[in-house]
Amino acid sequence: MDQFEVLVAVxxxxxxxxxxxxxEALVERLAxxxxxMGLSLSTSPHRSLFLxxxxxxxxxxxxxxxxxxxxxxxxxxxxxxxxxxxxxxxxSLLESSTVGGVGYIEWCKCMMRLNILAKSYGNNLELDIGLxxxxxNAASGSSLLLDxxxxxxxxxxxxxLFLQEDYFVAVHHMVRxxxxxxxxxxxxxxxxxxxxxxxxxxxxxxxxxIAVLVAIPLENYQDFLLLEDLKPLLQGLPELNTCLNLLVxxxxxxFFARWLGPIQELANNSYFLAPVxxxxxxxxxxxxxxxxIKISERVTVSYLARTxxxxxxxxxxDVSSLIQKFDINISIEEDLVYYRDDLPVGTLLSKVxxxxxxxxxxxLVMKQKNEALRGxxxxxxxxxxxEPLGRSQxxxxxxxxxxxxxxxxxxxxxxxxxxx
Length: 420
What we know:
By secondary structure, the chain is an all-alpha fold. The chain has 22 helices and three strands.
């Protein structure tokens, strides 16, 4: 039923258009894929770029409505609207149907992919709550927990949090999902299924690497590295492991060589990550600059630029932005950054600490929340509950929020999913 990966292929082609040298071959290949599905590139809002490279003698084959099943007709209508960026119509069609024969988990995956295409990321968090409720109600020991479709849905939920730039909550979600689904790490590190690629595994691992580096405070990186139950994940993500160790050892220049090298290149070449990279990059630079501001009463911008191997004008702009954004008691005179004397040192340090908390996480900025992450991870993996998705009695604020959402969740789709 899915086939949303071909819609992403259209968007990826448009995204990379200016860098492509073999446009005609790629357009022809994509048009052929769409044609086999009963779709046409002429429906896409990007058609003005693509159509000049198509063989106009090839006529798009319209599917005869009298010979297709209602299910196929519905799928075609959903895909046509999504291809045309009529996402609200496509979503309404999918929501109103049980998507006969595919089951609730597959329906969730379709909805989540469609929401990501529409950039309606918040809707996927509600779907994730419904999916977890559905799985809790499944029979004990159900093989559903090992289903690749479930793993795909949990990763799509993680991607939605990342793409709406809720990095701390994204890490929280991923750690919990790893606990609830023991096969998730293996699925994440497995090679892509070439016939069904929506977000590729390299993009997922890059999202997770970036989310951890941005969301976890500098002083907690060492704790994160030492968590025994996260070792399989860290071993499978060598870039994250390397970056964390460089940051723990304050080898910031070497870290930025990787951050502004292979990580930045991969992000900028990704249809999904490129739009958020500018903000992510600024957050990471500011995070390190705050470290230097905390330990130095006087420091030059040229020293920071030289030490971090970042262009002078970028460092100057970052420092100026920090001062302006947070109204801290620091001044810049030409190259020199220094504390002003009109506020007590304690007040100055308080303001600087405020910056670091806000940079560490837009949503959960208090240090207590960051400390709670470590406890959350440790307690989760030590938890021995009778149910595969059993909940501990001591829930954090995020879990309490989800509980209230679970109670409000409408059960129609769940019941439909069980009957398809």
